[in-house]
């Protein structure tokens, strides 16, 4: 059974690890990788990735990407969302901290942020407007 708008937005707002997919270019399958993301119901989605990474290059070329988040406990439930890129901007220490706090225990955030900021190179934030949704909650059947 499909989720309601409110249910799908609430599910997407939870800190699931997403599978990002984007056109892989000529002669290649779509790039599909796990990624952290940020989303508030009714808003846009943003991700952080390395400046000049293959992921960023493919997203720039395609102008859009999709995310799939799911859970199998207690039953299979998923939200898949696809849409256009709105903006790409340099990452900030504050946004790295926000994203890290979404996924890591509080006591690990500062250590991870310090390590990532010093060691992972320049990062960018890519904003996407959710345009197409696919959802299901197989536990409600």
Polypeptide structure, described:
The chain has 141 residues and is α+β, with helices and mostly antiparallel strands. Helices cover 30% and strands 38% of the residues. It has four helices and eight strands. Strands 1, 2, 3, 4, 5, 6, 7 and 8 form an eight-stranded antiparallel β-sheet that branches.
Structural class: alpha+beta
Proportion of helical residues: 25-40%
Give Rg in angstroms: 16 Å
Number of strands: 8
What is the average of the pLDDT values?
A: 96
Main sheet overview:
8 strands, antiparallel
- Topology order in helix (H) and strand (E) letters: HEEEEHEEHHEE
User: With helices defined by DSSP (H or I, 4 residues minimum), what is the helix count?
Assistant: 4
Q: Percent of residues in beta strands? A: 35-45%
Poorly predicted regions = none
The quaternary state of the protein chains shown equals single chain
N- to C-terminal separation?
A: 6 Å
Outline type: globular
Question: Brief description of this entry?
Answer:
The chain has 141 residues and is an alpha+beta fold. 30% of the residues lie in helices and 38% in strands.
